[in-house]
Write a structure and sequence with these properties.
222 residues, alpha/beta, TIM Barrel, 6-stranded mixed sheet, 3-stranded parallel sheet, 8 helices, 9 strands, binds zinc ion
């Protein structure tokens, strides 16, 4: 198994465009302090934000046309944590920043509208339909669908379409992971992203370190 991003963090959320606690600029300043070289801001889909009563706070044009990193040398890109909506593989790719430079496909409780028992089919159909747009599958082993998801089938499809999966360090650190499924996933993936899924500055500073430590201790990487 290979870690694609030893020096970057490709999953984070801001207050500016979704449910993080901090602004785009605060997150980027902290990204510089953690020593990473590349940082993706992947705010939630509009379906997700509506489900959680999170309102739009600013326009997409600020970040699409005007924002620049004036703080440090970290390469910052803007993407989306897209949501799996149905067992037929429908996906909401749109968020309030209207950016797709990095696309994570995740399933969240109450945002996914299909039958939980068919979540595996949902992932596979989404990969069949949209694999060219998807850069990574997010928190596949999160507790929300930890019982229902067939990790083996989803990872097989992801490997087939050359889409990596992520080790979600927030879910690992905060006990929101089905560990049996996670070990199964890590035992069979070709390539993984190690992502913080930061919603706070604390998350940015500490969660990837925890995730990398876990992979070393369990013998998945040297
Ligand atoms: Zn969130
Ligand atoms: Zn998520």
């Amino acid at each position: 198994m290979r870690i694609i991003n030893p020096y970057s963090d490709m999953h984070s959320h801001t207050f500016t465009y979704s449910d993080g606690l901090n602004s785009v600029d605060e997150m980027v300043i902290m990204a510089g302090r953690t020593g990473i070289r590349k940082f993706a801001i992947t705010d939630h889909s509009i379906s997700h934000l509506r489900q959680h009563d999170i309102e739009k706070k600013t326009s997409a044009s600020c970040v699409r046309f005007r924002w620049k990193n004036i703080h440090n040398d970290v390469k910052v890109i803007f993407g989306v944590e897209a949501d799996l909506i149905s067992e037929n593989g429908r996906v909401d790719f749109l968020n309030y920043s209207k950016t797709r430079d990095f696309v994570i496909l995740s399933a969240h409780r109450h945002v996914y509208q299909g039958d939980p028992e068919k979540i595996t089919e949902g992932y596979i159909k989404a990969l069949e339909r949209h694999h060219e747009e998807i850069d990574c599958i997010g928190h596949l082993c999160a507790n929300y669908f930890g019982k229902e998801v067939n990790v083996e089938r989803v990872v097989d499809a992801a490997n087939h379409f050359n889409v990596p999966v992520e080790l979600n360090c927030a879910n690992l650190a905060f006990g929101k992971t089905n560990m049996e499924k996670l070990n199964q996933m890590l035992g069979m993936v070709d390539r993984i992203y190690v992502n913080s899924d930061s919603h706070t500055l604390y998350d940015m500073m500490y969660l990837r370190i925890e995730g990398l430590k876990f992979l070393r201790e369990k013998g998945y990487v040297e």
